[in-house]
Amino acid sequence: MKVAVIGTGTLGPAIAQVFAECGRIETVYLCRGRDLATGNGKDKIERAYDKLIRSGKLSREQADAYLDKIVTGPKENAARAELLVEAVSENLEIKRKVFRELDAICGERCLFTTNTSSLPINEIGDGLSRPLIGMHFFNPAPVMKLVEVVATEDTPREMIDTVMQVAADLGKSPIEIKEAPGFVVNRVLIPMINEAISIYAEGVASIDDIDTAMRLGANQPMGPLALGDLIGLDVVLSILNVMLKDTGDPKYVPQPMLKKMVREKKLGRKTGEGFYKY
Length: 278
Ligand code: CAA
Known about the structure:
The chain is of the alpha/beta class. Helices cover 44% and strands 14% of the residues. It has helices at 12-20, 42-54, 60-68, 92-105, 121-125, 157-169, 185-201, 207-217, 224-231, 233-247, 256-263; strands at residues 2-6, 27-31, 70-73, 83-86, 111-114, 132-137, 146-151, 173-178. An 8-stranded mixed beta sheet has the order 3-2-1-4-5-6-7-8. The structure holds acetoacetyl-coenzyme A. Acetoacetyl-coenzyme A (CAA) binds at residues 48, 52, 57, 117, 138-140, 142-144, 185-186, 189, 221-222, 227, 231, 235.
């Protein structure tokens, strides 16, 4: 099977890596979402593999075999794919524009999936000549086992089954869910991060102590503030705004401190500073 992953930001290259490591996949086209995007995304995968090679978890030969399957380039490469995963910026207008362009160049049998973390699938796919389904990976994609397969009322059963099977073939544990704001994981996780920020803003405890509390008191692998930095605080804010807009529920109102950090470009790991410095 030939797959195209669109987007060379945080998740695109990691998703391409997951596909390249699957025996059933012959080629992964890793395509730039925007023509002006810097880098082709493959360097991020090479760095991840270098780390695994240094720690003895992967051989150079195996890494090269995976990398050989990944072809980088513009969106037009996606014309040869049978399955497409869109992972461009979490912005409705950008996603819609990218899908309209892809709809015109991809074969009619190519399945379209989006890795959106919260945007309504119906609205992203509106006006396309084919159905769209959510295929939501988690950060860091090579490690996290879950894929949320998000179906709308109109998604054909066959398409849901195919995408569930592909996710299983990738070694993931997919779950099928009905489209709803935040799907499942983000609806639970993102308000928790927002709440942790309010605890810090109120001066109840330090950043380290809040994270330690949730690691040792709730057995989470990392604390909520470190997790916010990993996801990207701009993404956390945008998911809260989508859930607030869709539901009107005040429990999703973003904390002022979160908005301030995003304004100051303290977005977490990707900008070198969030709640922690990197
Ligand atoms: N490819 C393959 N394997 C990789 C890898 C890569 N790119 N990067 C790391 N790994 C492997 C490591 O080799 C290691 O393997 P072993 O356990 O066999 O040694 C393992 O993954 C863990 O890596 P590290 O030792 O570097 O790191 P860690 O043990 O400190 O764990 C973590 C890091 C996996 C991020 C862990 O802290 C964790 O699970 N955190 C929570 C992450 C989470 O909740 N993610 C969801 C965010 S929400 C989201 O993404 C949705 C959204 O829409 C916003």
